[in-house]
Amino acid sequence: MFPRRLLHTLFVAALLSLPAAAPAQQLVNGYEPKWWKEAVVYQIYPRSFKDSNGDGIGDLPGITSKLDYLRKLGVNVIWLSPHFDSPNADNGYDIRDYRKVMKEFGTMADFDALLAGIKKRHMRLIIDLVVNHTSDENKWFVESRSSKTNPYRDFYIWRPGHTAADGTRTPPNNYPSYFSGSAWTLDPKTNEYYLHYFAVKQPDLNWENPKVREEVYSLMRFWLDKGVSGFRMDVIPLISKPTGMPDLTPEQLKSPPNAYANGPHLAEYLREMNREVLSKYDDMSVGEATGTTLAQTGSLVDDRRHELNMIFNFDAIKIGRSDFGPSQLGAWSLPELKAIYDAHATTLGKHDWDTVFLSNHDNPRIVSTFGDDSPAMRVSSAKLFETMILTLRGTPFLFEGDELGMTNYPFRKIEDYDDIAVKNAYKAEVESGKMSAAVFLAAQARVSRDNARTPMQWDSSPEAGFTTGNHPWLAVNPNYKQINAAEQESDPASVLNYTRALIRLRAHTQAFVYGDYEDLAPQDAHIYAYTRTLGDETYLVVENFSSSATSYTLPGGLKAGTLLLSDIPSSHEANTSTLNLSPWESRIYRQ
Ligand code: NOJ
Ligand code: CA
Fold it and tell me: Which DSSP state fits 20?
């Protein structure tokens, strides 16, 4: 027993050592400031970034060797697409072992060295959390499929399906897979179907099972404890399945992601994940929100809900095409694109936070899709999109090679592709006779994910300096002699040097982070002109979305102000109401 006096002393000492109440966070324009709101994120697709050992596959030591390049670019968060042990049915989005590094990418020591190199340069790393599904080679699924009574059976979603009088088996419902065909596969061992929204080798986890959730939280802690700063969460709105999983109606079949996403338990799972894991670290979370409408965004990211920090909404990046199955690039107009950003600004409030991006490893190259990648226009056009992404509302996400204005690859035949989505769609559409090969291939060349996945173009040496071997896993774009980092390094007017200047400008201009957004000319077919205002500081961004010179007069007698940056070094128009813009020119003014 302690003497009373000593107890009293201990009690007072304990009181005194309590941390002082956290000072109330100073809001900036109504927003709570956060490092991840001020970040510029750069996505690395490790397979395509830099090969260090000549086997033709990008790897972690390759990334480490390029950290000074990223530091100089000015980005401060790196998002690494999956680096985990995987049989690569879907290039790492099919994980066999969540605690092991993919052998093609290196070892855990290589991962630790990469992370240490990132931290040394005052950057952070976020990794991909792929937990809607695993690989069928994951030990949980190997166990699960082995018998109906295995303790892991309920880690996945098994159903008997239907059996006709003649014994013919059909799947439990009409769900289509994102990668063509049915989302159900009959497994002969136990004679039941398992659900896979993606490839046959990507079985969906059963999040209703609390043991699955505990395993996920545990692997998240494993990587956070190593020092990663958060996660990009793959197809996260799909983890809660629709109640009873009835057939999709003909209407729902027009957009299956909307029917699959945001199931009845999603909020409960995300809140639990936040409480159990995310809230305990200084991390960021960004959900890949397939099937989620803008109106549903708040229900995932509103900071009073304690779920995710941000999501990727695909309305802009998928403009003119569908986000399910083999799509075509259709017509779209600038007013339609602006209407999307305008809607974001009015729908998302001070408790929400947005992302801004026009590319990633699942989409074709920005300049070939939204701009003009012809030799005369490519540079200005690529700079315009960098300007837009780095000055619109939300945390910007750049994809490797955008800062060089890399373009789509000239795909011609099905053998040119690697992506399982294209190969499966070819079987389903062309080999079945539904579509001609010519029509299919013409559409895919414009929209295929492989456009983004060709190796990074570092220099003009063979294979663009990506590998010292002769066989990159996916062909290098033949334009690498004209478009590469080394060449752009020494050219003051390059996309690379312009992007660096933009990131520097953004880094000391809070208005681009927390400022209000106003579109000055929503109906203009060629000009995107908007302001970002924070307190008494207003910045004006003007972009000419056309391959012709265009003049534009600001509304209401407004004058442009001081020119801070233009992609055309000779631009000098300032303090005037009428701006004469070169093709694809973009300018930033301070008013
Ligand atoms: C979205 C990922 O970005 C994509 O690359 C992948 O194929 C699917 N999710 C399945 O994981
Ligand atoms: Ca390699």
Answer: P
